[in-house]
């Protein structure tokens, strides 16, 4: 039965004996705690920290709102609580205080849990984002096993996905399939039964883990249906990690480079503070107490927008056009000439600049470092063209003078590597991004519920009302 309706009377009448308790379904190893245990340890301290902030600084001024902020998409306004990551214009992204290079040093890799591969695992990043703590190898292995155990799609979801026309955009299919899993939401059922507000985070966490576990199978089934690639049945191997299984499902199970690239790609794309469209949308819809499936479905629809999730496709198209003009072994002068041709035509150079950063994107640096370690990418003409361009373009953009940040962002590299590995269906790239962004958006939804954050409801004004206000 669909669980969109909410019985408020049942909640108010619920007795303490009916309070919701999650039955643990995780695979557990001796002498390790589960992710739920780790989050449960964090919640009391986070609640106390929020309580103290309110008590000590509730009337403190965080800055003045100007008309340009209201008309400029609220850019830069400090009006949102987001625990998983902080983006600083000069220092880059930090996940609970840890930079990407820090994470690459301390977060467990595939090799650490007995698999082939040297890159940090998305499971490791998920644990860090949820708890603020670096997990042990055993904890990551346990979480990986839990995700595998929950990764199979229910038959109704498979039928829904199979009913979509092949011509429907993969992101439309992805968001619709995610929303359909609301059918089994533990949060929606617990809310209907009258769960205490202080316990909202528990069924939210269980839904979130269940959704993250199932995203690869949803994405793989869409890939097979639309493009005819992959195993067609979304078979899950309990001995593989989340991305090892995803790679098998989409037909790359024997490509070690692609598997490790996807691990890195999904880990570093998982969270990028809360103000971007997809993360903010999950938070906004979740603030109405929509369950994680509905909240993240809405986030995916935001991610599908051309100004958010399609940038690496635009970069790839531009880079391939440049390759046609300058050839496989372009000189720096060839690249400079193409850059100036782009700029003089009134277009921007895609993959350069950032809404917040005023430095090279550390995510680009991580992907660039990966390219330098893989022989097949060092021999790739398109990847090496992108690498050369990243060294030439900043000086051209500085000379041009109209770009606040002339350095490459993550999109300058991400799509080109997928293309080189053979995944050339551009319209699918945002689906991969969608698997990743859940690692940040859903943990924050858990924290929103743990901290009891209210429904988000900013004040809006008409232009007439603004004029009247500003004349005073």
UniProtKB/TrEMBL annotation:
GO biological process: carbohydrate metabolic process; tricarboxylic acid cycle
SUPFAM superfamilies in the record: Citrate synthase
InterPro entries associated with the record: Citrate_synth-like_lrg_a-sub (IPR016142), Citrate_synth-like_sm_a-sub (IPR016143), Citrate_synthase (IPR002020), Citrate_synthase_AS (IPR019810), Citrate_synthase_sf (IPR036969)
UniProt keyword Cell membrane present: no
Superkingdom, taxonomy of origin: Eukaryota
One Gene Ontology MF term: acyltransferase activity, acyl groups converted into alkyl on transfer
GO CC list: mitochondrial matrix
Key words of the record: Mitochondrion, Transferase, Transit peptide
PROSITE patterns the UniProt entry points to: CITRATE_SYNTHASE
Compartments where located: Mitochondrion
Family: Belongs to the citrate synthase family.
Protein name as catalogued: Citrate synthase
Organism: Meira miltonrushii
